[in-house]
């Protein structure tokens, strides 16, 4: 996020369109707010009370109590686990339930855990590892409820968790001795690991903080809010104001005054609270001193019940004042704002406020401004922007706090009166819409029930308002009040190949930017300082804007980099225009900008980026530091699924050889050219302007020349120019030019030529319109006396056109329902047109009628008429049919010659046309001279014919359209009926299939059998040891109409609710006989164990071959009594395959060290048909997308890289059942270039837990893991810490050595046994042979072993196998786990070398 973002200067390449954006802005008015003495709840501050996690009484009354309690201390009793390595699941569920109740009641919490809540000496565990494990046990809860957890008091040590009288005290046999430093540091480190990065731990004494960090100096402003352990550590005082040293809270060796100075500095930035203690109205806890020290120590919270007599001694007025002042209390003082603003204009905003509380706000919180039209429901419109201000800096010592901003009003905002609201919601998106977690200001008539604070309701939006405005449609902040940098020696140099940007800043900045408006269009790109920037150069990166209208910070990184050249405070970029493909013109404006500490992390709100920063491509103006990015931080509306780009801010010095090279280049450039250009920039601009002006003149002259040439060559232009009579007379004297000026000469000549040289011509409706247009134009010309006095050669052209046009006689529909007219020639093809004659000789053709055609003539005529009638012409010729015969054809004649229906239709149409031709007017054979009256008469005749035909066409078109509409509606009805029939058929078919299944189930009868003893130790463990929170399903009777048959996975336990009061149910935990009836009951069995303590029957389907889809479907499972003589119950279960073996929608292919495999081949073969149905190639992300629609069945998948022979060629089996598919699967390809006795093991798992680690122990003392990645010939090739894997281990098996391979759960969540961890064993089968210890079968290259999914929540190690180098045997441990977490020793190896 840009906090102190500063626009510096706009600079154009040649002509800068710069103007003063903020000139003549509207006059501001000032409003004064009235303070309120009202007591109300605000989050993260105030009086607190406590509740035990298992005793949450009266939570719903706290916010409305006299003290307006919004913060609760939740006490967690873990005394039952003092001798347990981990906290039990029931206690963790209890804590979750307590926090969920607090959230529902609008409360925030402080947590404290302890092993005793009474005066018991040393109640905590002796083993510090136990305490650390218990802290880590609660880590998932801390993250799950981060939104309501304000801080965690360290607790753990001693009675009440007050960090004295502990097993780990300096003297642990007496009360009140402090905790020793080593234990403090270990537990503090555990909390830093377990808590979210923005949550703090509070220790009991300031002295402990100094011991933990070995530093007597308090937290400073430069260290605050940095998410370091010191910045996240403060203290709480449970003997507040009790005595001179607050009962041992202060010291040793420090006076009260020294401690208060230390605390005062630290609590500027951290939480502080506690509970009072001592004699009421004593030296320190009297009202006056209590008020003084609470302000001095910046008290955030105080326990209202400890100690009530002290508070009573203060009196009600002092206690009420404490109620107002505990923590922060913000009061609005004045607001200056623009009374009137134009849409797209600037709202001046100047707010003054004050913090009258004891302390600052200590958790991050956005400060939003909202424009509201004041309406409700669907008519309500709101615009919101987040100000670049951190409310944690609004301290009690700051007196008056000023916030001055300029805000851009959206250009599309409606005119009228608008409200301006202030909104400080919670930073966590889950609570942002909950008004109980928003900040209320202490003023009269400002608070709204939705959590907003009303500034004013009279901001008038008017188009007539003064001030500048833009078309920017986003409500946003456009200026900041911090130091505005200056810039000198600004220049932009553009050549054909390179763009050079040069600027000299007045100080060093973290980010140097140049915004380029390539298309000089403010409406496109990112709106900044009056331009629409399309490209951004920032330090060594450059970007293209992907949005428009300047609404979002949507920059897409371009490949490559631009190494900036830095000399002192001079910043120079050289951009290769050709490589960047930047469409930069001479008028493209540039905005230079700089930011100093101006970009903060939106995850942790740190202002410094020591490494990369990451910019979100979805959220507007959202940045994360590397730490938050790696931790997948989500805040506000930002999600980890959003695409982010990395941005460097490199420090360039002379030690970098690449920089030296560029420095030398720029030095040479400055000496030879750049210095001259920069010193004479103004002269260059003048010359450029002159060139530009000359260029414009040349362009204008070029355009004029072009127009003149066009005029001289275009007869249409002559029509426009030839207005006066003199020019018309000149034109009329030239018959050649006039001939060219006939309307659409080319078309007319074509028509005339066609008339003379064709037997007929069919013209479509568009042809009618063309002729009509020509006639109208001729009519206009004939009315012009100047144009009618034309030469005889021109008359010749007109007479030919009109004479032939007169022969239009009929309109006939063609086969495709278009309308055409036939033009019949009136001249014989042998006639010639005399060049000097004004007459047309027209003779009757001997072929005008069919009855005059001989056999051969008819044959030739039909071929010319339609080439598709060749076969018919051949028939006529062979049967010796002449024209007269054809004219007298009847139906029998057509049948005799086998004329098709289409041919007959064409012939009849041809006969009708020839009959019409025979009835036409007598041919004009005499010479004739047409005058204007005669032409007009002929034109009128033609117009009448065309109008009549057009009317007929319109009538027929309308009738056809009506018929088409009727047919369309009928088609829709038919389609709907067909669809309904299809749905009914599918429904009936499905019901028939279900009835067959249920009928089959009802009639099958298999003998009961107790399958428990036949199962592996893993399956027996799963069935016998179930978690306390297992979910139950109800019994579903064998009823075909039942639609609620439970769906169970083949590798997951199913707990059936079975009351112990039912007949024949055993009293003790025991296995029971079962039988099943279903699709393949011979290969599917259901071992079962009854658990009377939870009243559930636990079972799981055991499938002999999970890749046979015939094993999946609905089964009727019958459960019997122990002696198999009685049926306890029956139920239906639908078995589906594990998602891990189902064909995914996408494969993401990587090698075993997590490199993307581009160009990898994925093939999918359906085993049942032995046919390849899909072949795909991985893209640049290693992804291959599979078809959406795939039939149920078994598939062989093949994955390999044709470009890398060192990677294995994988083949494996998967299934598809009822379209059950994962979105994607990561597929890691192992190495194929392994040497003799070399083993390559690849560990992969699901998204959680984030970090599993591979450990390999050898019997000669080697231990390779992430802290020691290689030892001898053992190598950890890859270590992944954010889920999925791979973790890859490669080693050479040596004789006389044993190796133990184990997987460690480094991160806490979730259980190791739920991680879906699996290990693939790769080796060269030609040089290495490894047999299995238990059955002497050979280990297969690419063999996969999966973690057993048993109930072992405490497990930290999964012991996978032991390999004996002497015997070349591998022993797999089917169910071996270890709970302890000491992963830096060889304990695991020593234990399992001999197992």
TrEMBL record:
Cellular component aspect of the GO annotation: aggresome; amphisome
InterPro entries named among the record's database cross-references: Autophagy_Rcpt_SigReg, DUF4832, DUF4874, SAM/pointed_sf, Znf_ZZ, Znf_ZZ_sf
A biological process from GO: aggrephagy
Source organism of the structure: Adineta steineri
Protein name: ZZ-type domain-containing protein
Lineage: Eukaryota, Metazoa, Spiralia, Gnathifera, Rotifera
Keyword NAD part of the UniProt annotation: no
Coiled-coil features, chain-numbered ranges: 932-966
A Pfam family matched in the record: DUF4832
UniProt keyword terms in alphabetical order: Coiled coil, Metal-binding, Signal, Zinc, Zinc-finger
Signal peptide interval: 1-23
Domain ZZ-type: 596-652
GO molecular function: K63-linked polyubiquitin modification-dependent protein binding; protein kinase C binding; zinc ion binding
Superkingdom: Eukaryota
Keyword Coiled coil tagged: yes
